[in-house]
Every structure is written in structure tokens, then in C-alpha cells.
Prior knowledge:
It is built from 19 helices and 9 strands. By secondary structure, the chain is α+β, with helices and mostly antiparallel strands. Among the domains are: 10-231, no CATH class; 241-338, Lysozyme. The strands form 3 sheets. Strands 4-6-7-3-5 form a 5-stranded antiparallel β-sheet. It has a two-stranded antiparallel sheet with strand order 1-2. Strand 8 (468-474) and strand 9 (477-483) form a beta hairpin. The longest helix has 16 residues, at 157-172.
Amino acid sequence: MRFAKLIVTAGLVLATFAVTGEAMAAPRCVNTGDFNRWLTQFKQEALAKGITQQTLAAASPDMYFEESVIKRDSGQGVFQLTFLQFANRLLGGKRIPNGLAKIQEHRALFGRIEKAYGVPGEVVTAVWGLESDYGALFGKFKILPALTTLAYDCRRGDKFREELIDALRIIQRGDKTVDQMTGNWAGEFGGMQFTPSNYIKYGVDFDGDGHRDLVNSIPDTLASAANYLHSIGWRRGEPWLQEVKVPDEMPWQEADLDTQHPRSQWIAWGVRAAHGALPNDKMPASLILPMGRKGPAFLAYQNFHVFTDWNSSLVYATTVAYFATRLGGAPAVDEAGAKDIKPITTEQMMELQRQLQKRGFDVGEIDGRLGAGTRKAVRTMQVQYGLPADSWPTVELIARLESDKNPGAVAPLAKQTATDAPPVQRPVTQPPVSAAPETAPRPAPTRAAVVPPPAAAAQPPAAPSHKITVRVWTVQGCLTLRMSPEKAREYRRC
């Protein structure tokens, strides 16, 4: 539900820990159109979509261009944090005790919510805790100027134009006044940091006062989050994440979120529960290794995909899912094996992405982040070089890629099949009438061949160029980088 953010609400994270990592420059498009002319046209569009003149009159004083929003949108940095770094800093201090206290305080409410939507209280509480520190940090930006600016802006105008329309709808139906529309700089607000469109789609009036208030009403806030999770595929009564122990040797290429096997097959490969029992049955699960085979390991069940739909970052999704297990009574994750893991730097990650891109892999932007595309490409090359294919990038892999004299010859990873019976899809429990309509169930991941696209044609060497200076505004001040124009383009984050 987020606009491709690695880290949740900026204010919450900055209040929790000092950001580490290198901020990348963000060359962007330039706004050249007249703002007032654009605003006049937008208001005509809003009227055509059912926004009244009265609503526009009330909102117009706050529909202005805010330069600071553009600066924040341009200056988003890249933060290369491992799962344990991210989880320990966000879940440290009083985050877990406070979450347990919230569950106890609102026990009856959580019971009603689970009956209606099938989502346990610990799951809703974990999301609530990470998105707004249980309602303590909403953000202080005025929503309408932020959305107006981003809707006019050349970068993602179409997306934010619809968000601005939905923000006006929230005001028009009386859920919030113009003055009450405050949140973060990207237009998300409330205890669950909903976008206006998700507020419209999934917000519910759970306290019965006739309005959906996801800022001041705890029942509305928590029930709306459960409604959202239910609507994107949460399965009542099923698990989401379980810590496991992995053997020294196993088919590491099977450890992928898009690959499922029955629990019996994972047991056959030597996977064991870290705590309690791992049933020897046919329930499908994926093995995820967020820090490679030496770090924490989890079996991720179908419900885990709901967390990745909420936020596509594997680090965030694993953290919030793990947080929910802790609130449900699970012990802290075992960090013993991770003490010797040395993550590569952001610059090394960017070099790795460049090497993978040369071989025709689609790793997205050269941004220094370990995203899904980079993980899959890493796994394929680990198989190619005979390395343990756990999708975790290492200095050794980078060295192999740099020394490879034939970078275009990438052998695809052969399709793997489980020796056990195929995964069995469990039926989705039908919600009660009060719940939102069930959407089509998310297709179960299957074992697919990891095949890179055709190798890119060889490019002539670039002509030498002079160094340029790029000034980057970060959350901690201004950072000046010296780089070539070619590298400057690689730092683009659009």
C-alpha cells in the first residue's frame, strides 16, 4: 500500500534510530507547466468526478504548491539495512512491551475484529506499531498541499492526482475536515498511514458514529487495517511465519519466496523448527533466508504474502511478520549464525547490480538495494558459479562476476521439482457477512525456472568524462558527492 518505500513512516524511523547508509543523488524531471493553470484544470476534473463546489471552496486555501515536498521526494536516500539491523532497531526498546499492553487493553475490540475479518490481534498490532508507533506519530504535514504538489509534479502526477481526488472525497463525506488532514509528506495519514485511496477503499466505521475516522478512532483504525489485510488475501486461522533451523547443506536454490514445497519436503531436506514442532504434513511453505543461509531462516506461509502486498520490501515484510509472531509469544530470533555475516556496502551492491545488468538481468534501478530482482539474479549466478545459491550477495560473488571473461554466457537455473507431493491449496475460510467481500485468492507460488533475459549486446567503452559535483539533501544534512556524469545517471531514483 506504500509508494515503494523501503522504510515505513519517516518520522517513526528517524525517531527510532539514526539512519545509516549512503544517500544517492536523485536527478529528476523539471516542472515547466504553469501551476495555476494546472490547478484550474484539476478543479474542473474534480467537479466532473463528483467533488462539489462547496468542497473545493473549503479545500482551495490548502491547494497550493509546496516546494519542500519536491525536495523530500527528490532526496529520498537508499538505506542498505539487513533484516537484523532493521528489526532490532525497530523492535527494540519498548516496542514489544507496548504492543503487548495494547493487545491487553483492547482485547475485546481485537476479538470483534478477528471475528469479522479473520486477522489476529497481534498481526494488526504489529502493523500499527511499525506504521505510527501505536498512533503516537502521525506526521505533521498538511495533506492537501502535499498531494496538490505531487499531483502537479512531473514525476508521478497521474498517481497523485487520483490520491488528491480521494482526499477531497474524504472531506466531502465528512470523515475529516481540511484542518484535520495532516500526515506525512507523501499524503499518507492516520494510525495505519493509509493513502487517501486506501482510506476510501478499506476504511470502516467500526465504532458506529457514522464516520470512518482513521486518526482519532482506535476501533476504526484497527478494523480498517484488518479489513485491508483481509481484502488482499489474509486466510483465517492459518500461520504466516515460523522460525526454522537449516542444515549445513541443502538445495539452497529452493529457498525463495516464489517457491513453495510441503512442510514434509522441507523436513526431508533437513529443515527443523527453531522452537516447538514442524508438522510433517503437506501444508505449503516457502523458505526465506533474508540474510543468506548463515542468518535467520523462516518458513513463510501463504499469509506472509499479505505482508509483502502491504509493503513490497522483504526486509519490512519479514520484520512486521516476525514482530507479529513475537507479540503472539514466539521467542526472539536466533542471531548466533549471523555474527560473522558482513553485508556488502551500498557501492558494492551497485557494482553488483551493474555486473548483473551487463548479463541481461532486470535488476531495476542501479540503486544499491537488495530487491527481488537482484536476489533472483544473484541466485542464478551463484548456481552458475557453483556457489551456495542462497540469494545473498557477497564480495566473493562480485569478484567472480568482475573476473568473468565471458559475462554474456549465463546458464539458466534448471527447473526444480519437489520429490514429494505437490503443494495442496488450503481453502480460504469465508468471512461473515460483516466483512468485506473476499477477493480472488492469491495464486500460490510455484517452482519456476530462473532464466535471465538474453544477454545484452556489448557496448563500446564510454569516453572519459570530467568529474561533476552532486549535492544530495539527506535527513542528516547535505552530502556532496564527486562522480562522473555516467555514475550520476546511475544514481537516478525515479
